[in-house]
Specification:
This protein is 46% helix and 10% strand. Helix 1 crosses helix 7 and helix 1 crosses helix 8. It folds into 2 domains: 66 residues, no CATH class; 125 residues, 3-Layer(aba) Sandwich (Rossmann fold). It has a 5-stranded parallel β-sheet with strand order 3-2-1-4-5, sandwiched between helices. The radius of gyration is 17 Å and the shape is globular. It has 8 helices and 5 strands; from the N terminus they run αβαβαβαβαβααα. It is α/β, with parallel strands linked by helices.
Length: 220
């Protein structure tokens, strides 16, 4: 089996950059009651959460996530469990990290995290959703649908696209995930899972070209 390609080909760059920018909500950092680290294959979520915690952005982190086919080999004990371990290694104290180990999609991430916090009597008026960079828009739309009373902002580890792809080590994985998340913006809104989000024509056209190029493994 050939090794995954770790650098972005020039033929894909413009379209991938278009989707990458679209999914970044470009939110200004603000302090909140809780940081919620959404499980995925990207350990950078835990790195970002730890950095924001240590900067005083919130006093508590909830890491949420079980496993998916794309994460079981990388995080065999579960996404949230591995995230917590990484955050502790980065200096976050154990008492400041809660784990929600059952969620298997973004809707469950939000719903189950609410249950964990409510079960501990923790009132939440604001939250920072911490995700891989290209999950921001979908996470935001989902949270606004399922937890509308909470003021939500999004954050991710701040990396240039090329550096992010190199860190993951697999262009196809990143592009497939970007394409899949773009499709879900419309599909999940239509299904009532998330609030609608505007999608400019240039984003739709970039999405369609990447689908035609074969990046379909994460399509519904």
């Amino acid at each position: 089996m050939p090794e995954p390609v770790a650098s972005l080909p020039d033929s894909l760059r413009a379209d991938v950059e278009t989707l990458w920018d679209y999914h970044d909500m470009h939110h200004e950092p603000r302090n909140a009651d809780v940081g919620i680290g959404l499980g995925s294959h990207d350990i950078g979520v835990a790195t970002c959460a730890a950095g924001l915690f240590k900067a005083g952005s919130f006093p508590l982190i909830v890491f949420t996530g079980a496993n998916a086919p794309t994460t079981i080999e990388r995080f065999p004990r579960g996404e949230a469990v591995h995230y917590r371990e990484h955050a502790l290694d980065l200096g976050v104290p154990p008492h400041a990290v809660l784990v929600e180990p059952h969620a298997r999609n973004t809707g469950e991430n939000i719903t189950f995290t609410r249950q964990v916090l409510a079960g501990r009597g923790i009132d939440v008026g604001s939250a920072v959703l911490i995700s891989r960079p290209y999950q921001q828009r979908r996470a935001y739309a989902t949270c606004r649908k399922l937890w509308p009373e909470v003021t939500v902002t999004c954050a991710s580890l701040s990396l240039p696209l090329d550096e992010y792809v190199a860190g993951i080590g697999d262009v196809d994985r990143v592009v497939d995930m970007l394409v899949g998340d773009t499709q879900r913006i419309d599909v999940y809104a239509d299904k009532g899972f998330a609030i609608p989000q505007e999608m400019p024509d240039r984003v739709r056209e970039a999405f369609e070209r990447l689908v035609c190029a074969g990046y379909t493994r994460r399509l519904i």
